[in-house]
Amino acid sequence: MSIGRFVWNFGRQNRFTIHQRYRSCWSCGKNDNNLISNLFCSHCKALQKPDKAENYFCILGVKETYDVDETDLAKKYKDLQKYLHPDKYANRDQKEQEISAQYSSIVNDAYKTLLEPLARGIYMLRLRGKEIPENTEADQEFLVKIMEKNEEVEEASTEEDIIKLNKENKAMIKDLQKKLSTAFFDGDLKRVTKLLTYMKYYTSIDTQIETAIRNKGIIR
Ligand SMILES: [Zn+2]
After folding, report:
1. In terms of CB atoms within 10 Å, which of 137, 164, 205, 210 comes out highest?
2. Which CATH number fits domain 3-115: 1.10.287.110, 1.10.10.10, 1.10.10.60, 1.10.3720.10?
């Protein structure tokens, strides 16, 4: 493929032109101001190393928001993995093969983190310089509620019960997502931390329910 054609493809699809990078190419040493994409050198077309300064949103080329568009996220992920697929580098030099493997693994981590509401929230909180303290516990009243929910899931024996619990719990997580979105928008990190603590418990119930669904062979 000629460079011209390459540029045209990228220009038309507008995939990786979120921001420019002005670094020199590890392979040919030229300054890549003549941007084709974030991925390849415009001079020698070598795959570039992932930029350590870029956060997961930048890497995947999606808007940085808690209300991430899952369809867009999945599309960007698939597109990137297509360009980073090991088969494409089978005949390239060793270094480029290593970069593609490293890049691909970062893209996988980014996708997994941004797709999952709890992981996304924790990651966004970390981007703002905060962590959820390890020994944080929710308030007593909440913990009692969660313990009861746990028991309900353990004791649920019929398919109908499990499906009902699943529906309820998924709705709780959705509701927390909405609240988290507002809290992030308001920059209220204290509230974000509290909501993420709640979400941790509901996510663990979700895992428990999903296991029950698999074990009982329930088809949804
Ligand atoms: Zn180059």
Report:
1. 205
2. 1.10.287.110
In the predicted model, is pLDDT for residue 39 greater than 50? yes
State the distance from the centre of ligand 1 to the C-alpha of 21, rounded, in angstroms.
Answer: 13
Q: What pLDDT digit, counting tens, does each position of 106-136 carry?
A: 999 999 999 999 999 999 999 999 998 877 7
Q: How far is the centre of ligand 1, averaged over its atoms, from the C-alpha of 27 (Å)? A: 5
Residue 40 pairs with which residues in a beta bridge? Answer: 47
The answer to whether the beta carbons of residues 10 and 37 sit under 8 Å apart is yes
User: 153-176 pLDDT, tens per residue?
Assistant: 999 989 999 999 999 999 999 999
From the CA of 208, how far away is ligand 1's center (Å)?
A: 49
Distance CA 132, CA 123 (A): 10
Q: How far is the CA of 25 from the centre of ligand 1 (A)?
A: 5
